[in-house]
Amino acid sequence: MTTEVAPIGNESLNWSSALQYEDGWEVDITYRNVVDVIEGVTSPIIIGVGLAGNAVGSASLLQVAGLRSRGIGHLLVAVCVSDAIFLASLLPMWIGRRYGSDYDLHNSDGWCELLSLTTMSSNFLSTWFTVALGVERYIAVRHSRRHAGREELKPPTSKTSCGPTRTRVAIVALTVLAIVVFVNMVVNIGVVNRGDGVFHCAPLSSAVDAMTVLTNIDLVVNVIAPNLIITGLYTVIGVRLAVLRCRRGRAISRMAPPIPRRASGDDDGSLCPTEVRLTRSAFLLSVVVVLLSAPSDAVRTAHIVAAVFRLPISSWIGGSVVHLLVLELSYARFAVPFFVVVASHSRIRRSIFLSVRLALESIWKRFTQVA
Questions:
Q1: CA–CA distance from 194 to each of 115, 298, 319 (Å)?
Q2: pLDDT of residue 237
Q3: Is position 126 within any domain?
Q4: Domain span including residue 160
Q5: Could you tell me if 80 and 117 are in contact, meaning their C-beta atoms sit under 8 angstroms apart?
Q6: CA torsion angle for 166, 81, 114, 45 (degrees, to 10)?
Q7: Within a domain: 1
Q8: Model-level pTM?
Q9: Which one, out of 24, 110, 123, 163, has a CA that is 20 to 30 A from the CA of 260?
């Protein structure tokens, strides 16, 4: 669920330098054209579209009726903000790779540490906010009740969901944790000269071993654990929804009243439709994020396992084009969450489209008045 972090992630952004020679032969011109398209077209599209979508999501999601009073609304905004920070940090890196050292802020003192901190911390936060989204949906489904047959976005009671206060506390706690952890990691990163006369943002020579260990730990904390937790949560949610649907179907087919509510607090099979739709949106968001991150996670895991056990790595895994495609997919996962939510939930989509239209009309009126 994560792109490669700090020493790996920022080094992996040295796209052009990786494309020179393979097995003593100059790379085919087709490869150069593919890399040029990826660097010059795909990357700015992902960054631009992602920044625009995350900005709209951050400004409008809590304006949707009912989301402000639910934990999921605050978590979706937190995901949009962390993703926007990550993409904004990628922008100066891409500009430096594309337009030369005169515009390369990433490999300069100060900016190297700052961009390393923002990419690592926002990457961590985006991953764990997505996990928190699954936890919130599990609690909401576990305790949801139908609200007297009304299907509009209605604020839940404190017993039916993670409320906004608890959710905000969790968001703040995760943010503080990320800053504390990654500030201590960033002190081991700086601009170094590898002997080729070119300065690179990389782990300091005295901290290479420590950063290697931290990278291995990050694989567990930021890749394996989140994926397992998300898979487990949505598996349990899916089973529970299937059981509730089955109970309700049996009650209807027998023309019998609904099964009485149990003392444990389980529902009678009538789950609030709003919670089902929100859970579906959260599930689709998590699936898309996991799928887009999967190639990067697999390649990263393969490299770490090979380094630990001294195994050979297939040449196609480390190939320039494959490397770039994997990176672009992992970056795309920071651009799509808002669009997945909008596409999967019709009421959120209508509300946001209305908000955007009203905002544009207001801007147009002010522009015409000034003109």
A1: 20, 28, 22
A2: 92
A3: yes
A4: 6-370
A5: no
A6: 160
A7: no
A8: 0.83
A9: 163
57-115 pLDDT, tens digit each: 999 998 887 888 889 999 999 999 999 999 999 999 999 888 877 888 888 889 999 99
Residue 193, beta-bridge partner list: 199
Token output for 275: 């919670």
Name the token pair of 55.
């900005």
Residue type present at position 60: S
Strands 189-193 and 199-203: antiparallel
Report yes or no: 142 and 272 within 8 Å, Cβ to Cβ: no
Secondary structure percentages of the chain, helix, strand, coil, to 5? 70, 5, 25
Quote the CA–CA distance of 329 and 337 in Å, as a whole number.
13
Encoded tokens for 217: 């730990």
Domain count, the chain: 1
Rounded CA-CA distance 131/297 in Å is 16
In this structure, is residue 351 part of a structural domain? yes
Lowest mean pLDDT of 141-145, 280-284, 312-316, 353-357, name the range.
Answer: 312-316
- Which run of H or of E encompasses 25? strand 25-26
Question: Which residues, 6 or more positions from 263, have their beta carbon under 8 angstroms from its beta carbon?
Answer: none
Contact 113, 189 (CB under 8 A): yes
Average predicted confidence (pLDDT) for the chain: 81
Catalogue the long-range contacts made by 254-261 (C-beta closer than 8 Å, 24 or more residues apart): none
Q: Tens digits of per-residue pLDDT, 254-310? A: 655 554 544 444 444 456 788 889 999 999 999 999 999 999 898 888 888 887 777
Question: How many Å from the N-terminal Cα to the C-terminal Cα in the chain?
Answer: 48
Q: Domain of 12: which CATH number?
A: 1.20.1070.10
Whether 303 is covered by a domain: the verdict is: yes
